[in-house]
Amino acid sequence: MNRMKQKAVRQLRRRRHVRSKIVGTAERPRMSVFRSSKHIYVQLIDDESGVTLAAASTAGKTNASSTPYGGNVAAAVEVGKRIAALAQEKGIKLAAFDRGHYRFHGRIKALADAAREGGLSF
What we know:
Blueprint: H1 3-19, E1 30-35, E2 40-46, E3 51-57, H2 61-64, H3 73-90, E4 96-98, H4 107-117
Parallel strand pairs: 1-4
Antiparallel strand pairs: 1-2, 2-3
Helix pairs in contact: 3-4
């Protein structure tokens, strides 16, 4: 098995372990995080009805002015604050943090800390 295939298998295994214990409801949605090399995305998802309740990212026309580059910790903090504000508007105070296959450090940790400071708890 080549190196990239091994990496993909490890990521899939890690993602399954993390997501097997997390289920999003309307009262406590799953806060799913995806990061690429240039952007970071976060969604609040109700798994019971299969609906995205709120979403924020560094990509798109509305976000280009506030964060010129989305692949750094400062952009992740901005997205964390934005998702916390959107959650407060919808009346959401609790969330289940789903980091996917990403380790909890760097941009993922910065996003989570900013969301906590904004009023979300998980």
